Amino acid sequence: MNARLSAIERLKAAGKRVTPERELLVRIIDRNPHLDATEIYQIARDKQPRIGLATVYRTLNLLRELGVVRACELGETHRHYEVQQEDHVHLVCCDCGRVIDIPSPKLIRELAASRGFHVERIRLELIGYCNDCAKKRSAEAGQDA
Length: 145
Description:
Helices cover about 50% and strands about 20% of the residues. By secondary structure, it is α+β, with helices and mostly antiparallel strands. The protein has 2 domains: about 1-85, Winged helix-like DNA-binding domain superfamily/Winged helix DNA-binding domain (Arc Repressor Mutant, subunit A, Orthogonal Bundle); about 90-145, Dna Ligase, domain 1 (2-Layer Sandwich), CATH 3.30.1490.190. The longest helix has 14 residues, at about 130-145.
């Protein structure tokens, strides 16, 4: 995938070794955005049983420092990781936890620029209910009436 390749290239450009563990973790994050460290570790252990949780955390910190991955809380107290890509908005369901990515509205950058502000990156989370959970809540509310 393009995001994975650029992530590996960023590691190399920063003078960091591309170890099998680092490559595996980038691949896992790229294919499964929004996982937390424990979930990433569990998938990695299935592929490389000898990988340690400390290695996962060290690698995630390195990848984050290099701007290869982005960490976000998604309405929770722990971080979820995704390969750094174009700015986007997270729609986070507060019922099932589903995360939907949508492109950042250009209007945000335009509004900032009109006020003399230079945006480096956009990080925005909208918390609410996905369509399935909204329907379920509506049906439950109808039963209570």
